[in-house]
Amino acid sequence: MDHSQDRVHEPARLEIEDDLYGLDPDFVHAVEDALEKGDAEAAAALTDPLHYSDAADLLERLSPEDRVRLVEVLRADFEPEILTELDESVRDEVIEALGFADLATAISELDSDDAVWLVSQLDEDERNRVLDALGSEDRAIVVQGLSYPEYSAGRMMQRELVAVPAYWTVGETIDYLRASTTIPEDFYDLYVVDPRHRPIGKIGLAKLVRSKRPVRLREIMDAESVIVPVAADQEEVAFLFRQHDLVSAPVADGAGRLVGVITVDDVVDVIDEEAADDMLRLAGVPDTDLYRAVKDTVRARIPWLLVNMGTAIVASSVIGLFEATLEKIVALAVLMPIVAGLGGNAGTQTLAVAVRGLATKELDSDNALRIIGKEILVGAINGLVLACLIGPIAWAWFDMPLVGVVIAAAVVFNLLVAGLMGSLIPLTLEKFDVDPAVASSIFLTMCTDSLGFFAFLGLATLFLL
């Protein structure tokens, strides 16, 4: 076996026992040294074998100055797909270094779905300049793609596909595929269309090549294939692919005509993007900002911190209601964080499950009451278990039996609240068309802190004073 291809990629590859992907830090340092010395030939020799995603990773790791130098090294053979893999802030720097003429050339070489996505990431002035630099055919495709709603199937789909009539034979179809110069480089399915260009079935490439030449396509096509509306949300598309184990799916416009195809590689990107987005929003971060300037990162994060400060003030005002109780029994101030911490963590567990359930369609109005009831019961059982542990500890700690009883009761109550609110808040936000991943955690923290403090200090006031 010839291993020369493997040897070409070896400098940029991590050892297999360390990881299966990524760039070797020594390789990155070697590229940096070559760039700083101005040795473009050495830098090119190192980077030429890289896959475009590794090249994008390399660009992200470099300093802004080395980034510009590397763009110059790659310019002659710059792979357009690199732009689709870059972080937003880094991509802006690379585009500026490339210039709009080379950017337009790169966009024209991309698959139509990637071209539409990349142009959509530009600001209005940049977008217009790039569109003006594109050829008429490419410009028409991009403009049409941009006319569809953001995060829709129309934005995701690629226009390059194989559509064939039902009356063709397998032999005619294979001959067409061999002779055509317009079919996509990579495809999984052929779409069978009627005279109005509406999809009526699909045929997997493997099934086609295994069939006899005289067989008509209508005899071997899958007539029950899923058809995606052009305006469908990308999350709905990802759900369809997951539910039906699809590799590709046709996209139809309002008249039912075949206008594009969505492939599983794009759906994987959507699933990854949505998962990352939900994770970041649960933490109050609107977007990943590893490569953003400090001022932009501050501007993005401060609004949620301000909201969080407001909810913290609400919780503090509850504590203020029991100022006299805290002055007389200092032990309560020591134990308060336990009540809030347990409630917050239990609520976060429930919240994560609920948000995930809503995203995967496993939680909806039909089973909401059952799920809420289950989470309340889980909260009650967990609360009782923890109460049996923390009550005796508090009793022994402060030599006050009633303090142990009060904190035990408060923990049970707060975990009940956590189970209820952790499932109810995201369901309520979903009902009002608000993304549950965006605001759930802040409201949950306010509820568990405020009600937990109120229960703990209220019971203390009632039984200890």
What features would you highlight for this structure?
single chain, mainly alpha, MgtE N-terminal fold, CBS-domain, Tetracycline Repressor, domain 2, 3 domains, 3-stranded mixed β-sheet, 6 strands, 67% helix
Would you kindly provide a brief summary of this structure?
With 465 residues, the chain is mainly α. It contains 23 helices and six strands.
Describe the structure.
The protein folds into three domains: 4-151, Alpha Horseshoe (MgtE N-terminal fold), CATH 1.25.60.10; 163-263, CBS-domain, CATH 3.10.580.10; 294-464, Tetracycline Repressor, domain 2 (Orthogonal Bundle). Helices cover 67% and strands 6% of the residues. It contains 23 helices and six strands. The protein has helices at 4-9, 25-36, 40-47, 52-61, 64-74, 81-85, 88-98, 100-109, 112-120, 124-133, 136-146, 153-156, 170-179, 205-210, 217-220, 234-244, 264-282, 294-320, 323-328, 330-359, 368-398, 401-431, 436-464, and strands at residues 163-165, 189-193, 199-204, 228-229, 248-252, 258-263. The strands form two sheets. Strands 1-2-3 form a three-stranded mixed β-sheet. Strands 4-5-6 form a three-stranded mixed β-sheet. It is globular and about 90 Å long.
Derived from helix and strand composition plus strand pairing, the structural class reads: mainly alpha
Instruction: Write down the secondary-structure element order.
Output: HHHHHHHHHHHHEHEEHHEHEEHHHHHHH
Major sheet characteristics: 3 strands, mixed
CATH topology of the largest domain: Tetracycline Repressor, domain 2
Shape, please? globular
What's the CATH superfamily of the largest domain, by name?
A: SLC41 divalent cation transporters, integral membrane domain
